[in-house]
Design goal:
The chain is built from 4 helices and 21 strands. It has helices at 98-108, 122-135, 223-227, 230-236, and strands spanning 19-21, 23-27, 31-40, 45-46, 51-56, 63-64, 71-73, 76-82, 150-153, 158-159, 170-171, 176-178, 183-189, 201-205, 208-211, 245-250, 254-259, 271-275, 280-289, 292-297, 304-306. The strands form 6 sheets. The chain has a 5-stranded antiparallel sheet, with no helix packed on it. The longest helix has 14 residues, at 122-135. It is elongated.
């Protein structure tokens, strides 16, 4: 009845794992960063012509969209239009310039299918007339685009703070039709990440992506879009107490390896080595994540690393 018993597998002495496969991932080094903002008073929405305000949908706390007509002057719609700069001259057929291109780009956002070529053509004038008559059916057709027929918007949508002029009031050139929140005068990341990788970075706020220069200044072209985000509007409720922040990340993600810390040797300030059976690989330490060290290897990349490296091997 006596016999040799077999040791259950669960109780057997485990053998050490000596090698692991290397997993790779794209790494954008996203980090939350506070922003430094300087604000300036907005000129608001300003009338360029004179007349009687015969209609208005201006509402404090509301928003104005490019392509609408919030104000009607002498029964003629004033076209709300967001462009890079206010139109400074009356445009007629065959006029050319950067201001024409900006106008056509604003029209393109509203459905214009003509060429954005910086030249006033029949399609440019026709689209302007179509916009006006779509807002007020009997708006007179014109053969020129007069700045007085446009309410310039620095961005779209534009949030309304107050509406100083009521229907029935006389309007003079330069009168403020609607007051807007303060505008961005400068915007930058308070402190840029200094750890590796050192590369171009972008700022992400509520889905808006903006380029950063090497000193952390935010591309001014993105300011109007950032100013329209819920995060920025929340900041404006109390700039003295509310901290404006966003996500700073690499403009182009890099490919990194997930390496167990025990596989590293020859560790320096920002580099380390790993090895397989035949080769030693040197890479830049990028970050740590969930028990792994993230390493940026140049070609060649290891596929397997030893968890028990020979520390006598030279780390190049």
């Amino acid at each position: 009845m006596l016999g040799r018993t077999t040791l259950p597998t669960e109780l057997a002495t485990p053998s050490a794992i000596e090698n692991v496969d290397v997993a790779y991932q794209d790494f954008d080094d996203a980090r939350t960063a506070d922003l430094a903002v300087k604000l300036q008073d907005s000129p608001g929405l300003v009338a360029r012509g004179a007349g009687l305000l015969t209609g208005s949908t201006c509402t404090p706390g509301g928003a104005i969209m490019s392509g609408g007509a919030t104000f009607i002057l002498d029964r003629v719609p004033l076209l709300d239009l967001a462009t890079a700069q206010p139109l400074a001259r009356t445009l007629v057929m065959d006029d050319r310039g950067a201001d024409v291109s900006e106008l056509q780009q604003a029209f393109a956002a509203l459905g214009y299918t003509g060429a954005v070529d910086g030249v006033v053509g029949t399609r440019t004038i026709a689209f302007f007339n179509a916009l006006r008559r779509g807002l007020v059916a009997d708006a007179p057709r014109v053969d020129a685009i007069d700045p007085a027929s446009i309410v310039w918007m620095p961005s779209s949508p534009a949030e309304i703070v107050t509406c100083p002029i009521s229907v029935g009031s006389s309007v003079e050139p330069g009168a403020t039709l609607a007051e807007l929140p303060p505008a961005i005068a400068s915007l930058r990341v308070g402190t840029l990440p200094t750890a590796v990788p050192s590369a171009a970075r972008t700022l992400l706020i509520d889905g808006i992506v903006a380029n950063l220069d090497e000193d952390g200044a935010v591309d001014a072209a993105a300011w109007p879009k950032i100013a329209a985000t819920p995060t920025f509007r929340d900041y404006l409720t109390d700039p003295e107490k509310v901290v404006l922040s966003g996500s700073v990340q690499l403009a182009e993600p890099i490919r990194v390896a997930q390496v167990p810390p025990s596989a590293l040797f020859g560790v320096g300030d920002d580099t380390a080595c790993v090895s397989d059976a035949t080769t030693v690989y040197r890479g830049a330490i990028v970050s740590s994540e969930r028990g792994y060290t993230l390493i940026d290897f140049s070609d060649p990349e290891p596929e397997i690393v030893s968890l028990l490296p020979d520390h006598r091997r030279q780390c190049p």
